[in-house]
Amino acid sequence: MILFGSPGSGKGTQAKLLRHCLNGPHISTGDMLRKHIDAQDGIGQQVVQLMKSGKLVPDELVNEFVETRIAEPDCRSGIILDGYPRTLNQAGVLLGMMGRYKFQPAVVHLVVDCDKIVARLSGRRQCPVCGTLYSLKTNPPKVAGICDLDGATLITREDDRESVIRERLREYESQTRPLLNYFQQAGVPMFEISGAGAPPDQIMRNICDALAKSGLIQGVPLEYPKAVPAAGVAP
Ligand code: ADP
Q1: What is the value of pTM for the model shown?
Q2: Most buried residue, 14, 181, 209, 214, by CB count within 10 Å?
Q3: Phi and psi (nearest 5°) for 104?
Q4: Quick check: is 12 in a domain?
Q5: pLDDT category, 234, cuts 50, 70, 90?
Q6: What is the tally of structural domains in the chain?
Q7: In which domain, by residue range, is 81 found?
């Protein structure tokens, strides 16, 4: 499952929620890269400036991350990709991997108006310990600046500043959006789902319902979770 959409469309939030109806681990190239930055290792040093300025990192790097991760045993029943592929090169490499592993790829495109995106991202706060996302407007923490779950001080991602958000959106428009055409031409099934106007758990149900109707998943679980732990998406 390829979760596709602009920065701030809710891919990370949905990837976590979709575990309720899809098998397989959540693979986020952005999270992998941030781990290297936190560890201050060679890869971290190579990508930190690019990420801080909202630019994409080199294809070879993320292709290798995904190649390595997909070979692990927990990926055999499927994977949920978040933030990959983002360029035509990455999409070609991914479809090659899908063929080798006999996976049937599908794209879920989370559609959100551009004007909502900047407001969403600039109001986003994250717990550095457990990763829970908050939205200052629609899903604030109970105590300002503090994670409800573990009391850690919330942070703003460096690339969630307005000038960097605009660069990320430019990169999306020029490099990533064209993949929609590419997938269509490659015959990959695509589902357009609104990523706004409803709470995250409802959006998750809409995705699962669409996949179930098309026969791509077996059925929709009867009980969805009532509380949504990582709701960073403004309606
Ligand atoms: P978002 O989708 O909100 O931009 P991500 O965590 O997916 O957040 O990505 C953050 C940054 O990490 C991107 O702006 C880019 O610099 C880098 N990145 C993540 N995934 C990729 C990728 N597949 N190709 C190139 N760069 C990537």
Answers
A1: 0.88
A2: 14
A3: -100, 105
A4: yes
A5: very low
A6: 1
A7: 2-112+165-213
